[in-house]
Amino acid sequence: MRLPKKERQKQLQLFLEAEPFLTDEEMARRFGVSIQTIRLDRMELGIPELRGRIKQMAQKNLDRVRSLSLEEVIGQVVELNLDHSGISVLEIREEHVFARNQIARGHHLFAQANSLAVAVVDAELVLTATASIRFVRPVRLGEKCVAKALVTRQTPHRTQVDVQTVVENETVFQGVFDVYRSKEDK
Amino acid sequence: MRLPKKERQKQLQLFLEAEPFLTDEEMARRFGVSIQTIRLDRMELGIPELRGRIKQMAQKNLDRVRSLSLEEVIGQVVELNLDHSGISVLEIREEHVFARNQIARGHHLFAQANSLAVAVVDAELVLTATASIRFVRPVRLGEKCVAKALVTRQTPHRTQVDVQTVVENETVFQGVFDVYRSKEDK
């Protein structure tokens, strides 16, 4: 049963607070309405489209990356708390997929996760030592990969970072990165 | 003690048969002579420089890659025995390194190894499931990474491929890739 418009807009706002990377397509599916309806809802509520929301998030809540230039991070960093956590978003475009089947090549997901794992570490020199990764399901052209990194262990010279990448709340990639960081920075 | 020229050229040929990816620099070091001397030796012996040797190898001894387009493999494939083994070479250029320290970014080494692991599998559809990798030592601008892949286990739908990447016989990267392949191709 469809919700009345007022109720739908209220829920839509709550959804987006909880999951800011929801696409219009996914919201349309959840509410059983057209994408156009969701777009109108967003306009009435003054909520920018996903790309705009990502940009907004990237402008606040962002520690300065120390180990890399920000443009060396693969994907757009939208949240960064050094030595704690970070989030980045990578949209899968033509250059990321296999010509044959439009599935994203694994090394791009790896690059997003690995560079985010390095970016969250609060040191000048950070190098990846080991990684254990799992490609949970194929990612396709046009999908938006949201990688979430969490520092799970710190010793004087090493940091362990767990990264989980989701597409619309479905896990597509998991990785545990063990990185060295230079002594003088801790 | 330096070897006489004749003896050096004989050994140089033997070295290159055993290790075709030796650079002139490394040979010069081994023989305690200048790089120019090695170049002259090669010219006298009619042995092309490394780049030429790689091209020669790429033209023979190469099964047809089934799972990818050959140009989708990162690095140049110089040997390929489907469902058995493969070798590729990646030269680290400006676009592969961190601006700050000229060290190769990990995801390029990962991409070389992962795409080679996929290329050696004799099936139309091959997707990486998991990988365990280790960056053994940093790789720098200008170094030539030789990745060697070996199929170590086969079950009806999965193949395990071990990849070891060396720079002048020093291991820089190790990875174990577990890949799915499509049923109909086995």
TrEMBL record, chains A, B:
SUPFAM superfamilies per the UniProt record, alphabetical: Thioesterase/thiol ester dehydrase-isomerase (SSF54637)
Keyword DNA-binding included in the entry's annotation: yes
Thioesterase domain mapped to chain residues: 115-170
CDD domains: hot_dog (cd03440)
Keyword tRNA-binding: no
Annotated GO MF terms: DNA binding; DNA-binding transcription factor activity
Record protein name field: Transcription factor FapR
Source species of the chain: Marinithermofilum abyssi
Gene: fapR
